[in-house]
Amino acid sequence: MGVHILLAEKDLIYCELTTAILTKGGYSYTLAGTIEEARQFAAVKKYDLALVDLAVLRDDPSLTAFLRDQLGIPIILTTDEDVDRHFELIVDLKINLALSKPFKSQELLNLIDLLLHPDENRWFGLQNYLKNANRMKRIEITNSLQIRNVIRTVFQQLESWGFTFDMKFEMDIVWQEILTNAVYHSHGYSRHKQERLPIKLPDPYKVIVRFGSNEHQFGISVRDFRGTLSPARILESLQISVEQQKMIEKAAQSGEEISGQILDRGRGLDLIRRMTGEYYFVIDPGRSTEIIIIYDRNYEKDDPYSSIKILELPVALADRNARHPTG
Question: Model's pTM, two decimal places?
């Protein structure tokens, strides 16, 4: 039995682009140009997934509750607008996946495949996102003093594989934030991070870094085995960063002093969103969190807006017997 996707999209050009991608992936689809059509189609036919454009959803945000909460249809929000302008709506509706257009065909197809097959073995692991990887390395971190050396090692190895980095400084900042958060925040050492105190993780906890490459891409993943990060916490932190960025831009024009109002919270997560290309937050609640980033060989952050990609395993899958960390 084939997969059926509901596509709620107003823009004719994006209709053609998206339907071409869905056809390439072997998916059947129904096109709805309005909220009314989306509701009518979903009421009489079972859909496996919905792609809903922000311009359609704004007409009636309750469509989210109807599709996702009443009918159990996973939703990917799509938009060619600045996500930051609509962050309050995204948080209110608990949108975990907001994809900026135009999107790469393989990125959309990969995301659809992941949502259709919620499974730990398919969701976790850099190899599931870096297709056809011919090189893969693994580093284990058990204390905070290893972080800088791990970053140096990753850069050196990637350079030995023939990759160059025009945005090495930006990449370094992002990796530093990811690793620091995974070692400190995920394991309950936020105070130690604020006071810049080194820590050693209690046995058997650790953070696993994987990095690798294929012919055209390279990637890095950071996984902890606590699973304390949640979609709500990510969205809340991103919203704080979005609001503060607006405050900074406004103060730059007015000359207002706002240094005392700027918070550190959410900076690391927002840096991932703004300063990387293809990325994913993957969450198994209470068990594990992995952040995965994929870079093109000649990486540049040239897309105008930033997506939101949070994958959380369903409770039915996440509610399993506890096990020791592995990796």
Answer: 0.85
